[in-house]
Fold this protein.
Amino acid sequence: MDDLTKRVATLSPAKRALLERRMASRNGDKAQQPLLACRTGHGPARASFAQERLWFLHQIEPQSAAYNVPRPIRIRGELELSILHQALNAIVARHEPLRTHFALVDGTLRQIVAENASVELPVVDLRNMGEAAELIDHEAALPFDLSTGPVLRAQLLRFHTTEHLLLVTMHHIVSDAWSAGIFFQELTTLYGSFSEKHESPLAPLKLQYGDYAEWQRFAS
């Protein structure tokens, strides 16, 4: 008999019955938790709690860039611009949050996902990293318009034919450190695959962030 079992055995019948009722209630709550699955219906998903907080802060200071997340990635070696652009757009097509803007629908904040969206990839020729630092600071200070999108911007800074800096800036409402890691992993995978004239090797996503947001609302 373990220590917990011994302690339960010493309880009075009334206390033991109370403990059993509480345990049964907790198990019932767990059993009633909905499973995370694809949302039903065709309307826009509700925003998650985190997105709602960031949207509210954006309403207070719409010109603020406090929640911009710039991520510069140095690329060394030969680079095919068209393939990099193709890979970026494949990720935007794959992940709904990257083509989302936000709107109040009947008083509820909703994620409005564009069916078709693409990201521009302007190329800026530079001579040194000092100029790059100025551009990164400038880009980080440009606000996003969450009511219209896009919520992602990209630029390619070129120092040499074999030396580039890819600058991807997202609003925190659709990106965090964990999802950024996935973004750049998939970008590397897609660029390599497209360079070899292959299709995307990435399996279709079973769930999108809107599915999670709806589940979160229902489960809370």
About this structure: The first strand starts at residue 68 and ends at 76.
